[in-house]
Design goal:
This protein is an alpha/beta fold and about 1250 residues long. It contains 51 helices and 32 strands.
Amino acid sequence: MQFKGLHWIEASAGTGKTYTLSSLMVRIFLKDYLPNQVIATTFTRAAAAELKSRIRARLLETQQYIDLCLNQSLDQRALAEKIAQLQDPLLKHVVQEYCLKLDYASSRLKLVIAQLDELFVGTLDSFSQKLLREFSFESGKIERANITEQASVYTEQLLHDVLREWIQAQPQHVVDYMLLCGRLKSAAEYEDLVNTSLNFASAEIQGIDQAQLEVQDLAEALQNLASINITQIEELKEYYKGKYTSGFYKNVAGDGGAVLHQMFTDALPKLIEKIKHNPLEHYFNSHLAALFNAVFALYLTKERKLRATPHFKKTDPACTQEVQDAFFDHPVIRKIKAVVDAKLNFERQIELVDTNLKFYLVQHVKQRLPQLLQQKGETTFAQQIRSLAEALQGERGQRFAQFVHTRYPLILVDEFQDTNQDQDDMLAQIWRNPKWYMRGCMIMVGDPKQAIYGFRGGDMLTYNNARDDVLKKQGRIYSLRQNHRSVKELVCVVDELFQRQPAFGEKVIYEPVIAGSRPHPALMDRQQVNPAPLRWVTVEHDQDESIQIAWKIRALLNQGIAGDLYFDHAAGKVALQADDIAILSTSHKKLDQAQYELERIGIQVNRSSQRSVFTGFLAKDVAAILTAILHPYDEAKVKRALLTRLLGYNLQQLIELEQQGLGQFIYDFDCIREMWVNKGFLTAWNYCLNLFKVWENLVAKRSFDNERHVVNLRHLTELLSRQSERHQGAYMLYYWYLQQVESPAKRDWEIERKLSNAAGVKLMTIHQSKGLEFKVVFLMSADQSPKSDKSALVFATQEAQGIEQRVIAIKHKDIDATAMQQHSERRLAELNRLWYVALTRASYRVYAMLKQIDPTKKDQSLKSNGLNVWRLQAPSSAEIAAAWSCDEAPLTQLAAALQLEQVQEIKIDAADFPQRRFYPRTKTSFSGLAQHLPAAMRSDTLALVSEEQATAADEINQEPVDVEQEVVQVAQPIAWIKANFQRGTQAGSFLHKLFEYIDFQASHDDILEEVKRRFHNDKEFNSDVLLADLIAKLDTAKGSATVQEADIFAHMTEWLKDVLNTPLHDTFQLSALSTAHYLSEFPFYLALADQRLFIQAIQQLFEDVGHPIQDLNEAATARYLTGSIDLVYFDGQRYHIADYKSNYLGGDQRDYEKTNLEHNMTQSSYWLQAALYLVALHRYLGSRLQDYDIRQHLGGASYLYLRGMQGQAGQGVCHWRPDAEFILQLDQILGYFELKK
């Protein structure tokens, strides 16, 4: 693949798509693109995170291999031999392509890895948000809008408004009859319809004309029916109770003419009697529905359709044509027929009005939602994509698209089959634009056979149109055909099955695949290697299916325990376990049945929750407690709170408490309320949980749900704490919580979280399983017929300008037959793709559950539903089908559970559980402790003017000296580069980054190259501004820009060499350290005491050793102290820390002598920072180093004032090694745990 133009990759299931994409990224970065020029998008955040980590891993792997080749100094012949032996296609290609310039490839990859954080890997939604913010001016979308969490609320609000508007605009009789016919529903009933249409925002919605609702004909027909005389009915006696009765067809008259007799003798007379007064009103009376239906049965079927068959049998000689004509011409029959015709006409009108209502709702909500979001200053991801697609239209949009394409010339779009039309419009305008698509590169990756998210807006029509567009523009098509997920036998038998019927529908054609090269440990089943990996199991009844699956799983687990079913790994045998098995279904109801049967026989189940944390008793109990806190003097509310499971009182205890009075509880709740108002929600809530021993109450009784309740309470606490920062005042937070409990949704952040013991047989829908892999899979109801289509929308297509486009219509009886056929074909095609996804999840074995035909049914033929679409076709290879698939007989009884004979007992020696354990776990740092120091304490005695730039976080106490004022006083000036290098956060961070990346033992040229690379690439630290500032301060302006830059780089290199060659302690220098003996930027989390941090004790400790520190923040709630040590190194005897300081103390070298440095250390409280870092190192060494001794192994702290280090001892370095007792005392004050190996 050459990275220009358009490329289309079709990756079948299990073909190693992520591996391929990460390998492609390595090649992309080695060519013409850097990370900040590349975009990679995929369908979910989890997939994006995985892709980025895989890209980094492949880059590191490739760079390390190239460095290995360079270190071995291979000649061309030896390198060619090494290439021939390579199995990794990426490494083979890269080394072969760059064999003559491996050093360039290595340097390029190092640069890419250093800049990899600038690579955008995310979803298309997050990318659209990035574009609108980054190009707000070019796009014309200057107003910043935040992603709303209230999208469903806004839709519901609009739906109510639009429905009320429609009702108010209709004549009263239309509203009345819509209500009487059950067609006018609440707004909630239309939510699914509207939300589905919003997922297809760009599709045209076909409307219908406003229908006129006329009831005059129906009223007249009913009035005529009510005027029938009983004697007129008796005139038809020969037909319903005479010689002509047998002439009626059975479907009209029933056995022996019973239906016809009952209608004329009972139903019709009763109906006439009931409707004599106000017949139209009685027509809508549900109590008379049975009578009307009995009368209408003469002309209507049970489905309320006109009978297609004649009423009389032609073979009956008595029923001549004259007899039949006399029956139909009789006034009674004519009046019944008139009512039936009027009824059908009225129902047709009602349906058209209902269809028009639905269209009105869909159209107006779709139009008004963007306006409402704009008023709120919010947006949704879907609306954001829509806005971006609109911004790319027209002449201005073309310029905007060109800006984006120039900034990001290469994009990789994964899971393209799930892309909707708005997303593809945006991508097409930028990267498939005919004017410039060849200047960049667009790689689209997807598998049309796995397009199963049509309900979210994913559309195969979009996929097919985009593919056609790529082909028209001479794009390249690639296919991944090697399945690495499954064992060879399963790949072959599944491939053979799908080849029987390769047309999946919607232009999706199955292409054959082969097994990949990934090694799989053999699954040994009674000394055979995985016999029949595809197994068909037929059960008699639906309820037997879940029972049979549970029995089968018990049998498989028993085999594993007995040693008859195991994976033959190189390291030994691994028995099949419950974690290796998954059950997939199209519905949650069937999964519920399977879960019940598995748990009933004691098999553990692992099923992700789909419930909101706001459902159930726990959320309501929390609401009751919050109510009591905010209304402490309302005894009814206090009693309700006491009866919750959280507080643990029962009714009998409450009656006893009432006799004593509730004064203490009222007082407690009032105190908690005051604490909430004054100190915030979290402090008050934690106090409440501790006061009433809520955590103990939750687990007081043994239950399987105890952990679920604890996790849910922590989840609710976290959500309330987070929302307390957004809602001002206790009542606003309280009302927000009540709203969630009243209307729980299924937003990602409120779904119940996984439990710590989540293990066992995995249960999930086929949609949830996409992208996952399981060793053994059970497919429930693999031959079930499609569910009845309850969708109110019809998805069809129409051609416009030679391109097929999606159109949506509201479903009604008179809808175009072609549109309904297209809708049905689309639905069946997605079901076929769904079963493809299901059958390709397993890596070893599949059990497909089928249903036996009901013997009582006349039609005994198998239906082509589910997997039967392929199973009932003739085998494409009878040998493969016979060798690796079989029909397995269902089990007749449940096997007894086997137990492991040898259970390893692990003795657990745990410390006593602490009594004081519930507290807010905040964190602090040295900067956090020292950031409040007054300006007078922070000012340096040499500072004459203040600096405009913000200073670094741990260097806030230093301000620059006016260099011009200082020139006269300088006797021994520091080097030019040290005096003129900028000061402040950005400049200091730039120097820190330099020392993080250089090799301390590198040659002068290597350090020079690293300096160049940092100045050219560290844009986050304004390296270009730093370089320009230094050039402007050069003594001479002669020479070109390149010469001036080289001069600056030489100065910087000499500065770094001075630092590396300056003795730190004794004669030790940084240049003596190899890369194996130091770590740069060493982060740590230091656990503090489970109590208030005693700042005064820390200050007294430093006073005792002669290094006083200033007043510090109390950090009363801090339980962790975080930081990052610039350098941890081992000098051959001890472990030390070093901290780089870019502080400017003056222009004279004497300003950086030991006395001045110690004075600055005191002013800045750097003694505290050094001590904290040494405590962190002490704890780290104690947990990692065998036979650790603080006196023998822990060294000191070197503070390196970079501007004063010039290669000689005693200049710019302050080394401090406190006594071991000092470190141990500080560790004890901070709080520590005894570390035992």
